[in-house]
From TrEMBL, chains A, B, C:
This is Ca(2+)/H(+) antiporter. Ca(+)/H(+) antiporter that extrudes calcium in exchange for external protons. It comes from Calidithermus terrae. The lineage of its organism: Bacteria, Thermotogati, Deinococcota, Deinococci, Thermales. Pfam families: Na_Ca_ex. The chain crosses the membrane at residues 12-38, 59-79, 91-110, 122-142, 162-182, 202-223, 243-265, 277-300, 306-328, 335-354. Belongs to the Ca(2+):cation antiporter (CaCA) (TC 2.A.19) family. Gene3D superfamilies: NCX, central ion-binding region. GO terms for biological process: intracellular calcium ion homeostasis. Its main location: membrane. It is a multi-pass membrane protein.
Length: 357, 357, 357
């Protein structure tokens, strides 16, 4: 019901844009319009997945799970807002790991003294997160070495080449992980697949699902244009830094659906699913969305490297991955561990809030 | 017996101070006088705790366990010796993690082939240490970002604001941990509470304990004044750097009681208690003493941020937490692991010893 | 058979050197000649070890296991090629951890769904790797602190002193680990010792083994002279950076025997041995070869500190140790984990390849 009502934001956003309303209004309303659209995209994907059987379904989920984020970031990238795109990648990873997972573990832990989840799957996720941290750290250290050690005055080209190579490796790891999860080691993540259909049985026919997916995709693309177009003016009026908007605010909106779903699962003591949504979504951003953006940027003449010039951004990524690994690795959780994750999120939120505009 | 004898250092320190003896003498004698005083404070707290029942008693221990350190640091802070205060916080954490825990694990391991401790409690401690590392890393990266990325010429104010916010988050985490340990998950740390009374049954009446606590607190405060007042001149004469004194020497004195107690427990194969003393004390410094000092400094007009300008200091903190996590997380120890911790302590000791005066 | 044929490279290298052939030829042929020589040294050591009983044998293996690497590095050090020596230490550690272990885990995992190894031994290895990371990080942070915080214009002397102290601590840890493994906690690494004799029963008489060891040692030393002498000219002609050669190419040649042996064990599902070869060899480089080189350099008037001026080198070390710890700590492996290690190796390979010449 609620989600149908929110669709009203779409025509409102169009009207505001057409009549040149103040940027803040366009920004806020198009952000709100993205909430139901991202929800529809996700639901349509899941409906198709539920009909497709576990392997193809898993593949669909693995590929289109963060399609809305990918579209928004692509629009921003093509508009040349490269720093915002990088910030929203970082932000998406850390809001999933700290806020979505933190809330799930905390709220689930208030209800259940101790919650368990598949330690093997969690261990593998932790290893993949460690790889993510390494892959996102190296381009920055590469840039640092070029500048300060080899005294290369402008390492733009080698930075781009190395980031392209990194993107290639990340996509290979992503594909390997999909093959591992859906083929060779299905059993490792069992319990997840079975639980999904119970929660979301297929109710839409295939044409309906495809139609909804197509319409929502177009909607997301249009709203993303409005959002990106109004971003700069809006942040200035609101007195917020681009980093705070990219790292904290946009992912808050973009991951609203994940938040809700993960918390609901956690409160039903289905921690495997909650962890899977939060960590899986982060990994999808890191191993698929980010490298696709690097490739798209390269071929569209808007090259984006993976160098983080703001040291706080890399520290935030490292902090969120270290904290998640500490909490997740043993396959057990309690409310205090959720509180810790939320504490790290609060620390990062303050850091980016106090950052200059 | 021995401790009664050491009380003689108190009048001696007063005499030296009154007759303007050389600073080195005042420094050494007031440091020695602090040993029995810190011991009395600890014992009086435990006597009160033993009478108060496990929850209030645990709360008392959790709050006043490092009261002597807090008083010394507050005196130094109010005297404007901010770098020494920060150094002594770092030093207290790493001497507890590497020297106290290292000696306990090593000496205990010489007697028992393999020693076990509660893996759940150890895992939680490791997570809290990881949070500590993150919280102590972020202000420095924030400062770095301000200076080098945002080109803020003087980030004193934002550094202070962010450090205040960090202090707030740390205190919340501390309170959450106390609530977790004493209320919702008492069972997780069981074995600890029960073992304590056996070791230290209440023998003092409440008025005696309160009286000893009050007298020792006054004594600590006075000796701390002498110690801080003679510090600068003494380190110069001794040819030691302020960092070496703050990070290695002062915590060696301040944690003498912890060393002794933890090693004794380890050699009785009560590793849970030994780990609890070493790691618990570090966490209390990080999550309670450090943030209180930030708040006290702010309201007393001596603002102290949590930025570490000496890169070695942050590296030392990271090293001690990484090493402790590696050793502690599996709930098992042997002498080689203790030797490793002592090895890391030796490395850090050399590093700060070779540092310029 | 094959290895006998490769001995032909030795006279060929001598001929090329004597007739002043182009440096690239000398470089390539002497590198190829080192392969069988390092193999003979290793085999002769193992033959002696097999005859000597498990303790002395273990000691022999622990001491001479990386003798070929030590000789090559010493020759380079005495020739003043200090940066190449440091790079080859880093490279040897990361090629063992990422390439040797990665290939073993990957190829073993293609054959067996899940492979297990002694989690206690793996946990201890992970702790020793963490110590290695700390010990190799601190000199660089020490140098950074000297330069940027204490404003020491030329910290060469304190850097050397601290590196000497670090070398001393590392050798102590090495000896402690040998004592732990061969004496106090033999049982912890059981399964390894027993498996070795089965694989390599002693077939040579002691005089033959000693003779082969002596001859191969001389051969390695001569070929190392040729290799080091032709290195600079060869890398220039090949258009490769010194870092790429030192970190990627030389260890590829130097560890060829380890690669082969570890992969063979992994494919026979003897993961304990595969992990032991890869991780044990890294630890031997870090805890024995590197500190010996620091001491040799100091007494030979070619002081080598352990400061890494290229930030990428330290990042590479951190990345390889973090990734290995993530994969190894739980005592279980699958092909995806091997793929991850190989992915990290590929990332580092690209990074050093794109580095300026």
């Amino acid at each position: 019901m609620f989600r149908y009502g929110m669709l009203g934001f779409i025509p409102l956003a169009v009207a505001l844009e057409v009549f040149h309303a103040p940027a803040v209004w366009v920004f806020v309303v198009s952000a709100l319009a993205l909430l139901p659209l991202a929800g529809w995209m996700g639901q349509a994907t899941e409906e198709l997945a539920a009909r497709a059987g576990s392997t193809v379904g898993g593949l669909l989920n693995a590929t289109f799970g963060n399609a809305a984020e990918l579209i928004i970031a692509t629009v921003a990238l093509l508009a040349g807002k490269i720093e915002i795109v990088k910030a929203s990648i970082t932000g998406s990873i850390l809001s999933n790991l700290l806020l979505v997972l933190g809330l799930s573990v905390f709220l689930g832990g208030l209800r259940y003294l101790r919650q368990n989840f598949n330690a093997h799957a969690a261990g593998l996720s932790a290893s993949l997160l460690t790889l993510t941290l390494i892959a996102f750290m190296l381009p920055t250290f590469f840039d640092l070495a070029e500048r300060n050690f080899f005294n290369v005055p402008d390492p733009t080209l080698p930075d781009e080449l190395f980031s392209l190579a990194t993107a290639g490796v990340l996509i290979l790891i992503y594909l390997a992980n999909v093959y591992f999860t859906l083929r060779t080691h299905k059993d490792l993540v069992s319990g997840l697949d079975e639980a999904h259909p119970e929660e979301h049985p297929a109710t839409w026919s295939v044409p309906v699902a495809v139609g909804v997916l197509a319409a929502a995709t177009v909607g997301v693309a249009v709203m993303a244009e409005f959002l990106v177009g109004s971003l700069e003016a809006a942040t200035e009026v609101l007195g917020l830094s681009e980093f705070f908007v990219g790292i904290i605010l946009i992912p808050l909106v973009g991951n609203a659906a994940e938040h809700f779903a993960a918390v609901v699962f956690a409160m039903k003591n289905k921690m495997d699913l909650a962890v899977q949504i939060a960590v899986g979504s982060s990994l999808q951003i890191a191993l698929l969305v980010a490298p696709i953006l690097v490739l798209v940027g390269y071929f569209a003449g808007r090259p984006m490297d993976l160098v983080f010039h703001n040291p706080l951004e890399l520290a935030a990524l490292a902090a969120s991955i270290l904290a998640t690994n500490a909490v997740v690795r043993d396959g057990e959780s309690n409310w205090l561990e959720g509180f810790l994750l939320l504490g790290v999120y609060a620390l990062l939120g303050f850091a980016f809030f106090f950052t200059p505009r």
